[in-house]
Amino acid sequence: MTTVIMRTTARAVVPIILVVAISLFFEGHNLPGGGFIGGVLTVTAFAIIYMAFGLDFLERGVLGRDVDPGKEHSRDRVVVAYRRLFAYGFAIAVASGLGPLLFGEPFLAQSFVMLEGVPIYDHLEVASALAFDFGVYCVVVGGLLTILSVVGAE
Amino acid sequence: MSPDLAIVVAAVALPFIAAALTPLFFRVLGEGTGFAGSLVALSSFGLLASQYGDEGTVALEWIPSLDIALRFHVDGWALLFALLACGIGTLIFTYSPAYMHGESGLVRFYAALLAFMGSIVGVALAADLIAIFLFWELTSLCSFVLIGHYTADDSSQYAARMAMLITVGGGLFLLVGLLLLSIVAGDVVGPASAFDLAAMLEQPDAMAAALRDRGLFLPVLGLLAIGAGTKSAQVPLHFWLPNAMAAPTPVSAFLHSATMVKVGVYFIGRVRPMLVGPEWLFLFATLGLTTMTVCAIMAVAATDIKELLAYSTASHLGLMVAGFGFTSVYGAETGVFHLLNHALFKAALFLVAGIVAHEAGTREIDELGGLRHDLPVTAAITAVVALSMAGIPPFNGFYSKELLFEAAVEASHHHDIGLLGWLYPAVAVFGSIFTVLYSLKFLSLFFGERPADLGHVHRPPVTLLIPPAVLALLAAVVSVDPELAVEVIVQSGLEATAVDPHEMHVGIPTSFSPAVGMSAVTIGVGLLAFPAYGRLHDGIRAIPRTVPPIGANWWYDTIVDGLSDEGREFAEYVHNGLLRTYATWTLAATCTLALTGFVAAGAIAPTEFGLEVTLAIGLVLLVAVIGGLAVVTSDSHIAGVLTLSILGFMVAIFYILASAPDLALTQLVVETLVLVIFLLVIEEIPESDEIEVGRSVRDAVLSVGVGATAFVTVLVTTSARPDGPTDIARYYAEQAVPEGGGTNIVNVTLVDFRGFDTLGELAVVALASISILTLIVMRGRGDDGYPAARGNDGSPGEEPPTDDSRSDEPTDTQRDSQAAGGEDE
């Protein structure tokens, strides 16, 4: 499927998808979106890269590393990074749940503050749930990308 | 005076803490860890002794929301048992370093022994049903570890597994019994002390009446009896105890004679005031006397000194159970006093057996004899304790046996039991004759001719001699002055276990009574029959050889082996290495369970459901249905997957029309991603249309079943919903902005209100990735971790990894790999 049309489209589409994914993630608290959807959309962007440029593209083209031709794909550093990502994401989610315990709140209790007078945005809401949602995002991205890259390598 | 909570808790906790620190002790002290253990045991003994004379309940808060607490009740009975455990523990820890010299696995040995001592003290003092159960099972677990001490030895593993299965399994019966008890106790003593055994025992009559009212008296009695009977090796579940002799001798002396096996007896004594009655008499007197007689006969058939002592232990446990079974006060006296006496003489006998095995190098009865020349001190100790076991006056075993005879004679005076009134005393005498026989046999190892082929027998080190000597000395003190023991501890133990306790007196009888006559017959016949011991021994041994099913062990082996074989055969069907088989079983089981659940709960009711859909939604759903039909009729996998995604996208559009933007967004993105992954995998799946008719029928039935389950579930869950938003829905809608600070209710619910659920789902995503990674990455490897090239299956052993070399019985990993690998060939 690595046709010229596919590659050209991918070049234009992938950045847009990633930006949309990130905005979905940040907007999630007040508009449709959130960590899960943002995560899955990010994975779709990666899926398009894989389909358009092949599995080794990230390793060779973007990160500029050499890839042994016969090497098992699941040993790639990118895949290792994905695996780490979902582990860290899970750690972030748990840690964000443990945080409230320090303030005498129950596990996973959430709170938020409104910052007034911020430049450009005027007011900005900082919800502690965003940390938890970030954990969700990381787990989804890491987990699905691991599956995608390993299954894709077969 | 009320006991001190801190001291009681310290006495229970100290051994556990020491058990956790054992590796540290061992690093510093090496084989001397045993002496540190005896110091710990002695400290617990001292702590408990400081509570001597106190009575009352103390509690440490544990799970207040369920009214479960670490309640400890201190009274004479609890102290007798706990002090016995700590006291004998001290001696065992002193004995162990010399006995276990040069062996490996000592850290595990001492840690388990210490943890065991903590659990046994815990079970003695605990007054909370849950705490009792936990400590009870902990003793079984420690016993499992200790019996299986020689991990490389098959017979040791077999014995450990058997003990575990029987005692832990019995513990589960006990748990059910305790829970039934707590249900009734909730009504009688108040829900706050539903698990408080001490509170129940304060109103034994009210408890018994309430149990009878609710028809739970017999179930509770039966369940507790099974629990206590398995733990205390009562017939027909006695066979684990002789097998447990695979453990090192200190363990046998401590766990399997003096303490753990007495937990059942102890508990019977504990609940006796509450459950005593005609059923009690019938159950426990029969059970106890049967065990006493059967195991005494088996002890005569034993060829190994530890086996002899093991059967004798079971027999004496039967004596104690029978004692508590008799409802008169003599019964309680028998149980309490014999618990003490038996611990003194039997632990000493085991330690003597350990010395003999250690110094003479054999435990076979036929190969031993005339040991008094080599082991004079040991012989003196044995004389005291063996005669005590035989129940020869004036040794201490005689007094408690005399009490049993009195209780057996008294039984018919208290209850109208007809013929049993004669049978009980007769069986008691009959069993006791065998007790005299095997006791004399054990003693005869030290006398008579020394067999020629018995090699040099070493003198035992002094640390091996002191513990049995101390026990023999105590037995001698009790023999000379039984009233002293009664005064010190037995009387207070009696008060906790008897219904109408009174001043207890024991001593050498001075006038004739039926019990004296029974003792005379027992000892006389025993002495007369001793010359015929060899013939009796051979005769009894011949019975199980000719009729195997008479032995309980045969039943155990048959049942366990049968179940293992059945399990293996069943696994061939369920766990055959093909993913489709797993899917079939999982889905079929889920559907069956869900549908049965709905039917059982009466959730399926004919409901009218009108079709209220707008034209747009109707059209979308129609396209979805057509897409679904097209999947089935498509002739290639690619077409099937693509048409399947039509269905998915239609569902997404349905969500948009039903104003659920979050769901729609998720559905769209996930659908896209799943389509991509499907397309990646699909190339690997062979395009084969040839499948058997049977399998396609199975698949069709399963698909219809899954569809029906999903359909019914949706119907049931939506029809159960009340009209309008529920309280929870309203709460989320109202509180999303003020509490969660977000206007997207779905997201606020996910990350804030129900964050715990989301965390669980994250774990699922992470686990799914790990399992897929493992399945795919590891599938090229066999058992030996041989990294075969991709596309090849792993092969076992040393054979080269080729496709043809699959063995007939692949291991699990290989089967998985075949399942995964089979798809791409």
UniProtKB/TrEMBL annotation, chain A:
Alphabetized UniProt keyword annotations: Cell membrane, Membrane, Transmembrane, Transmembrane helix
InterPro entries: CPA3_antiporter_subunitB, MnhB
Superkingdom of this protein's organism: Archaea
Stretches that traverse the bilayer: 12-29, 35-55, 85-103, 134-153
Compartmental location: Cell membrane
GO CC aspect terms: plasma membrane
Pfam name, any one: MnhB
Membrane topology: Multi-pass membrane protein
Domain Na+/H+ antiporter MnhB subunit-related protein per the UniProt entry, residue ranges: 5-146
UniProt-recorded name of the protein: Na+/H+ antiporter MnhB subunit-related protein
Organism (species): Natrinema versiforme JCM 10478
UniProtKB/TrEMBL annotation, chain B:
An annotated GO BP: monoatomic ion transport
Residue ranges of domain MrpA C-terminal/MbhE in the record: 695-776
One example GO MF annotation: antiporter activity
InterPro entries the UniProt entry points to: CPA3_Na-H_Antiporter_A, MrpA_C/MbhD, MrpA_C/MbhE, ND/Mrp_TM, Nuo/plastoQ_OxRdtase_6_NuoJ, Proton_antipo_N
Chain intervals for the UniProt region annotation (Disordered): 784-825
Subcellular location as annotated: Cell membrane
Origin superkingdom: Archaea
Domain (NADH:quinone oxidoreductase/Mrp antiporter transmembrane) ranges: 126-413
Domain NADH-Ubiquinone oxidoreductase (complex I) chain 5 N-terminal: residue ranges: 63-110
Biased composition (Basic and acidic residues): 803-815
Membrane topology value: Multi-pass membrane protein
Protein name per its UniProtKB record: NADH/Ubiquinone/plastoquinone
Organism: Natrinema versiforme JCM 10478
